[in-house]
Each structure stands twice: as C-alpha cells, then as structure tokens.
Specification:
The chain is mainly alpha-helical. It has 2 domains: about 150 residues, no CATH class; about 120 residues, no CATH class. The chain is built from 14 helices and 4 strands. The protein has a two-stranded antiparallel ribbon with strand order 1-4. A hairpin with a 2-residue loop joins strand 2 and strand 3. Helix 3 packs parallel to helix 5. The protein is globular and about 60 Å long.
C-alpha cells in the first residue's frame, strides 16, 4: 500500500513537504502565472530520468522497475527547481532540468554525488544562460513561513539524521547577520527577522544543504563544512548583494567533500530501508537511493 511506502521511504516525506511549499506559493502567494514553468521542470526531470535509466541505468534490473523506483528522486529534483529557480524562457527551464538529472548519473565519486543535483542545475542555468535567477522575495516573509518550513524541515532532516548541518549553517548565517544588522548597524529587529525567515533560505537550510549523498560523512567535517559555507554566503549576501548566495557557495564547496571524507574517516551514509523489505529489495533500493537527492 502507498501509505506503507511513505513510512518506509524518506523520499516520500520530502515530496509531501515540497508539495506543501509549492501549493503555498501558488494558492497563497499568487504564483499562478508560472504553471508552465513548473510543468516544464517536472516533464524535463521525469523525461531525463527516463532517458538516463534507459542509457545509463544498471542493466541487471528491468528498465521499468528501475525507472519506477527512480521517479521519487526525479520529483524531488523537479520540486527543488520549482521552489527556487525562476526564468521566463522554457528552453532555460528544460536545460536546468537536464543538467540536474544528468549530474546524478555522471558526476559521482566513491558512490556519492559530487554536486547537489538541483543546486548544480540552478547555478549552471543562471551562469550560462543569463536568463534565470533565484528570487527570495517571491516567498514574502512572515512567522508562518518561518515556523512552518523549520518544523517540516526538522522532521525531514531528523529522518536522515543530518540536522547538525542545518543547525550549523543557519546558526552561523543568522548569527553573522544579527551581529552586522542589529549590533553593528543598529537596524530594527524586524529587518533581521525578515532577512532570516525567507522561504528560499529556510528551504535551502533544511532540504538542500542537508542532502545526505553530497555532504561529508563525519560529523565534525559536516559542521566545519557547513559553517564555512554559511560564512562565505553571509559575506556574499551582506557585502556583494548576491541573491541566492548560499546555493552558489554550496556548489563551489562540494568538490571539497571527498577531501574531507579522506581526512575525517566515517562510515558513508546509506539509506536504511525498512526490515519489511526482502534482501533483494533492499539491495535494489540502495542502488536507487544512491542517485536520490534534491
């Protein structure tokens, strides 16, 4: 039953929460004029996943079974693009979707993604086309979004046991903003609250930077890594006025993960399917999970 799959597969939790965020944007923040963009992302990701499994998937497993099992991963990627990347050009949207999914198959090292797929798709689309952008302002800023995203994000990151990354990144980023805006510049508190409660920042903090297949394996390495990302992202945000700076910094920092894994030895993260699965099902799901990211 589908309800059993939800509780046995953490990816379904992420899909549900991302669906809530997208519905919030469409029905409460009036994003209705962008239906074509969301449709393009989903068609592009699912279509590229289909071709990826057809040409690059492991042939030991029947194609339809592989593709069906990989659909949640493609949906997660499509939601990631829909929630963060804006463009007026359908061609750019398709390009971003292709880069996102293809990177899962081609850019890998030691059983892990080198880059977070959605983050890479977003950055490549922005840098190479010049006709795409991250728009933090699209989310507005209010306490409902703050506590809603943080609560749902807490549930997801707790299931994959990588909450330390969220806390380290958001704590350092928000702390540096507080020091600059409140202590140094003397700005009112509501300005600081607005800065740290944007939907794009919180979604990044709880759903993108925490991707267990693209972060360091060791707890200490994860904290060092996420703290450094927060510090650089703060500088680019506060002094260079770059929208979506954390996403750019994440992509630049991810090639360092294999080096950190080498110096900080720890067991590589593996998704843990329920014991209700057979051994053959577990092995198959581990192969699918190895390509699953936001």
């Amino acid at each position: 039953m589908f309800s059993k799959k939800i509780f046995r597969d953490a990816r379904y939790f992420q899909i549900i929460f991302q669906s809530i965020f997208l519905c919030y944007g469409i029905y409460f923040l009036q994003w209705q004029n962008e239906y074509w963009l969301y449709a393009t992302y989903f068609i592009g990701c699912l279509g590229t996943q289909f071709l990826g499994e057809w040409f690059l998937g492991k042939k030991q497993t029947p194609f339809l079974k592989r593709y069906k099992a990989g659909i949640p991963s493609a949906l997660i990627s499509a939601f990631g693009l829909s929630l963060l990347l804006k463009t007026n050009d359908p061609g750019v949207a398709i390009f971003a979707a292709i880069v996102t999914i293809v990177s899962k198959y081609l850019l890998r090292f030691n059983g892990k993604h080198i880059f977070n797929p959605s983050a890479l798709g977003i950055v490549i689309a922005i840098v190479l086309t010049g006709n795409a952008w991250i728009s933090p302002g699209q989310w507005g800023s209010n306490t409902v979004m703050l506590f809603g995203v943080m609560s749902l994000g807490f549930i997801v990151t707790t299931r994959v046991q990588k909450l330390d990354v969220s806390i380290a990144f958001l704590g350092v980023f928000a702390g540096l903003l507080f020091i600059r805006q409140i202590i140094y510049l003397g700005w009112p508190m509501d300005h600081f609250v607005q800065s740290v409660s944007t939907g794009s920042l919180l979604i990044f903090s709880f759903f993108m930077i925490t991707d267990p297949k693209t972060i360091p394996n060791h707890t200490t390495a994860r904290i060092i890594w996420s703290t450094a990302i927060a510090a650089v992202a703060f500088y680019l945000t506060a002094f260079e006025f770059i929208n979506g700076a954390p996403v750019y910094v994440l992509v630049l920092a991810q090639p360092l993960v294999p080096l950190l894994d080498k110096f900080f030895k720890a067991k590589k993260f593996e998704w843990a399917p329920s014991t209700n699965y057979t051994l053959q099902e577990k092995e198959f799901l581990q192969n699918i999970y190895s390509r699953s990211s936001i």
